Amino acid sequence: MDRPIVTVHGEAHREVPPEQAVFSLTVSTVDRDKAALVARITQRAAEVGAVLDRFGAAVERRETTGVQVSPEYNRRGKRTETYSGSITTTVTVTDFDRLGELLAELAVGELTSISGPWWQLRPGSRADADVRGEAVTDALDRARVYAAAVGAELDRIIEIADAESGGMHPMTRSFKGGAEMADEAAAFELHPQQQTVEARVLLRVSITEPTVLRG
Predict the structure, then answer these.
(1) What is the pLDDT of residues 153-176, one digit of tens each?
(2) Least crowded by CB within 10 Å, which of 56, 111, 150, 208?
(3) What domains can you pick out in the chain, each with its CATH number?
């Protein structure tokens, strides 16, 4: 005779510190001479690269995510005599102690705009695995309660699967707080945002024959 089946959901929720900060930096300008425009943005991009080099291991990764050079148009759609150009770089930082200094140094440069940082966990972060394990434990606890309510015990696990919702939900924020400026060194005072990690699992287990149904 087949054993009775209990189906439950298990859930877990945790807030953990971020592991990475990502920001986007764009060097852009407008000029009537296309060649001069390209020279200006490439020179400034090289200066940005030199700043990133000086921060060494604090910068985990930098990637060029956009290069644009195009003629300008007025509101009527008519081409003007000027060109616009930009180079965008996405930077990933893991040393948060130096992040405020890096952002401030980049922000004061000409032709430069910055967006971010966006706080996040690493892909495949251990925090994700930990919270999924907690969700399974929660599901087993629930199944034991149901089994005990009918005078039974857990027998064996039949299925464990991700439920529809759950997983890592990193919170993205622009950098916040004031800027503490000094004569020789300026740095933004940053407050990393905690990351919300959630998991929801489906668990099916068989249980021993319930005793409350025996007559």
Answers:
(1) 999 999 999 987 544 444 443 333
(2) 56
(3) 5-17+124-207 (3.30.110.170), 20-120 (3.30.70.2970)
